[in-house]
Write a structure and sequence with these properties.
Structural class: alpha/beta
Largest sheet: 7 strands, mixed
Helix content: 10-25%
Strand order of the largest sheet: 5-4-1-6-11-8-12
Mean pLDDT: 96
Strand content: 25-35%
Bound molecules: guanosine-5'-diphosphate-alpha-D-mannose, magnesium ion
Low-confidence stretches: none
Radius of gyration: 21 Å
Shape: elongated
C-alpha cells in the first residue's frame, strides 16, 4: 500500500485562550510567538510536510490577527482560507462551518487539529490507521499522568474507541484525546449546521452511541497542549532547543534572539529562551526558559525564568520573575519579585520595591 495522505485540513483556532490571559488579550493563543513564529505556523508547516495543500482556519476570536499574518498561505506554500464564526460555534460547530470550503468527495480524509497543540506524532501513520479501519473518525491518543483536564478516550483490543469522557473528574483510563483527528469528509456533514456543537461532548459520544466506527491511533511521542502559561513557555523552549523539531526553527540551540533585538554583552540568555523583535535585555540580566515578545524590555540585573514578558512590557532593574506572566505594555519597577503563577495585567504599573513573593523554601 502506498503512503496515505490527506490534501485538506481544518485548524480550530477560534477559542479565547482564557487560561493564557493576559497574553491573549491582544493575540489569540494560536498566534502567540512560539520559538519566533506563531504557534500555528509550526502546525501548518507540519501539515504541508504530510502533503496537505489546502488549510481552512476556523476562526472566531480576533480573526484579523490570523489573516494579517498568514494571508492566502502563499508564503507557507499552501492555500489558506478562513471561515469566521461571528458567535463561537464550539469545536464541532466550527468544523462543520469550515467544512463548507472542503472538496466534495465524501470519502476523502480530512485532518482536523486543535490550534494549541505541539505534537511530533506520525500523521501519516494515523491516516493509515484511519484508512485500514474504514473509520468515520480516527483520533490521535496519548497517555498522560492526569487525564482530568482532557478528553478521556479508552479503546478496546482492536483499537476502537469505546467511550469519550470530556474533562471527567473520574477518568477510566490515562489515554486522552490529543486534539488531532482524521474525519471522513462525509461525517463532517452530519454535524448540525449553524448550531453550537462540541465535538468532544456531542459529536464523538453521538457517533459512538450510533455504532459508528471511531478508531484510536495511540502514539506517545512529543505532545503538549500549550493552553497554560507554564505549558506555553515549555513548548517554546522545546522548539528552540530542538527537543521537538520544526522546520520553522532553522537552527535549534540554547536561545533564539531576533536579529534586531538588543542584548547586553554580559547578559545571559539560555534554557531555550526566545527574544522577540526589538526586545532589549540589559547589562547582567538573565533570561532563562522564557519568551520576550516584540519590544519587551528587561532592565539591567533582572532575572527572568520560565516567564513570558508581553509586547512592549518593561521589567525593572534587579526584578526577578519566575513562572510569571507580564501583560502587554505593563511596567514593573525595580527590585520586585514575582513567582509561580503571578500575572501582571496588560498596561498595569507596579512601582519600585512594591511586590515581593518569595518562593517557599
Ligand atoms: N472555531 C472555533 N470555535 N474554535 C474553537 C472554539 C469555537 O467555538 N472553541 C474552542 N476552539 C478551539 C481553540 O482555539 C483550540 O485551538 C481548540 O479549539 C481546543 O480548545 P481548548 O480550549 O484548547 O480545549 P482544551 O485544551 O480544554 O481541550 C481540548 O483539547 C485537549 C487536548 O489538548 C479537547 O479537545 C480535549 O478533549 C483534548 O484532550
Ligand atoms: Mg487546549
Amino acid at each position: 500500500m502506498g503512503q496515505v495522505t490527506a490534501a485538506e485540513a481544518i485548524l480550530l483556532v477560534g477559542g479565547q485562550g482564557s487560561r493564557l490571559r493576559p497574553l491573549t488579550v491582544n493575540i489569540p493563543k494560536p498566534m502567540l510567538p512560539c520559538a519566533g513564529v506563531p504557534l500555528l505556523a509550526h502546525q501548518i508547516v507540519r501539515l504541508r510536510e504530510v502533503g496537505v495543500r489546502h488549510v481552512i482556519l476556523a476562526t472566531s476570536y480576533r480573526p484579523e490577527v490570523f489573516t494579517e499574518y498568514f494571508g492566502d498561505g502563499t508564503a507557507l506554500g499552501l492555500a489558506l482560507e478562513y471561515m469566521t464564526e461571528t458567535e463561537p460555534l464550539g469545536t464541532g460547530g466550527g468544523i462543520r462551518n469550515a467544512g463548507a470550503l472542503l472538496g466534495p468527495d465524501p470519502e476523502a480524509p480530512v485532518l482536523v487539529l486543535n490550534g494549541d497543540v505541539l505534537s511530533g506524532h506520525d500523521i501519516g501513520a494515523q491516516l493509515a490507521v484511519h484508512a485500514a479501519a474504514c473509520a468515520e473518525v480516527t483520533l490521535h491518543l496519548v497517555r498522560v499522568p492526569d487525564p482530568r483536564a482532557f478528553g478521556c478516550v479508552p479503546t478496546n483490543a482492536e483499537g476502537r474507541v469505546t467511550a469519550f469522557l470530556e474533562k471527567s473528574p473520574e477518568p477510566v483510563s490515562d489515554q486522552i484525546n490529543a486534539g488531532c483527528y482524521v474525519f471522513r469528509r462525509g461525517t463532517i456533514d452530519t454535524i448540525p449546521d449553524g448550531d453550537v456543537v462540541s465535538v468532544e461532548r456531542d459529536t464523538f459520544p453521538g457517533l459512538l452511541s450510533g455504532g459508528s466506527v471511531v478508531a484510536g491511533y495511540v502514539e506517545c511521542s512529543y505532545w503538549l497542549d500549550l493552553g497554560t502559561p507554564a505549558a506555553f513557555v515549555q513548548g517554546s523552549a522545546d522548539l528552540v532547543r530542538g527537543v521537538l523539531r520544526s522546520v520553522a526553527v532553522e537552527r535549534p540551540g540554547a536561545a533564539l534572539v531576533a536579529p534586531d533585538a538588543t542584548v547586553a554583552v554580559d547578559a545571559v540568555i539560555d534554557g531555550g529562551s526566545a527574544i522577540g523583535p526589538g526586545a532589549v535585555v540589559g547589562a547582567g540580566a538573565q533570561v532563562s526558559g522564557s519568551v520576550l515578545l516584540a519590544g519587551a524590555q528587561v532592565a539591567a540585573g533582572a532575572v527572568v525564568r520560565d516567564s513570558v514578558v508581553g509586547l512592549g512590557a518593561y521589567v525593572g532593574e534587579r526584578t526577578a520573575l519566575s513562572g510569571a506572566v507580564v501583560g502587554d505594555a505593563a511596567r514593573i519597577g525595580a527590585d520586585n519579585e514575582l513567582i509561580a503563577g503571578a500575572r501582571v495585567w496588560t498596561d498595569a504599573v507596579i512601582g519600585d520595591h512594591a511586590v515581593r513573593f518569595s518562593a517557599p523554601s
